[in-house]
Automatic annotation (TrEMBL):
Superkingdom field: Bacteria
Presence of keyword Membrane: yes
InterPro entries linked: DUF2512 (IPR019649)
Lineage: Bacteria, Bacillati, Bacillota, Clostridia, Halanaerobiales
UniProt keywords, alphabetically: Membrane, Transmembrane, Transmembrane helix
UniProt protein name: DUF2512 family protein
Coiled-coil segments on the chain, per record: none
Transmembrane segments: 7-26, 32-54, 66-84, 90-108
Organism in which the protein naturally occurs: Iocasia fonsfrigidae
The keyword Protein biosynthesis belongs to this UniProt entry's keyword annotation: no
Short name of one Pfam family: DUF2512
């Protein structure tokens, strides 16, 4: 149950970052932002939290999570005509995710009850 709550927190952090970058700055539809947040959260969890964080540490994992999230949003832009990005919003998204993930990883490392 603790891992589920942690993933919910990660989703909320991802959604807030995506909302700021893609709704407030570009006015994308909230349903696409929700889907992007879910996909980016899952990718960042599987790659960033389970593989990169234990092997390379918090800073590298946080930067990688930001880059992975921006790449995911860019792929969404290519595949979904109704969803748009710009270089500046992708940069903002990567920065916001990187910052959020840095502090999220600190929480993960402190909480021994969260399953890897």
């Amino acid at each position: 149950m603790r891992t589920g709550m942690t993933l919910l927190i990660k989703f909320i952090l991802t959604f807030v970052s995506a909302f700021i970058a893609f709704d407030l700055l570009l006015n994308n539809d909230i349903s696409w932002i929700l889907l992007l947040s879910l996909v980016a959260m899952l990718i960042n969890y599987l790659i960033g939290d389970l593989m990169v964080l234990p092997a390379k540490g918090n800073m590298i994992a946080s930067i990688g999570d930001g880059l992975l999230a921006a790449i995911t949003a860019y792929i969404f832009d290519l595949l979904i005509p109704a969803f748009t990005t710009s270089w500046s919003t992708l940069l903002w998204f990567a920065i916001l995710i990187g910052i959020a993930e840095y502090f999220f990883h600190l929480y993960l490392k402190k909480d021994e009850k969260v399953a890897p």
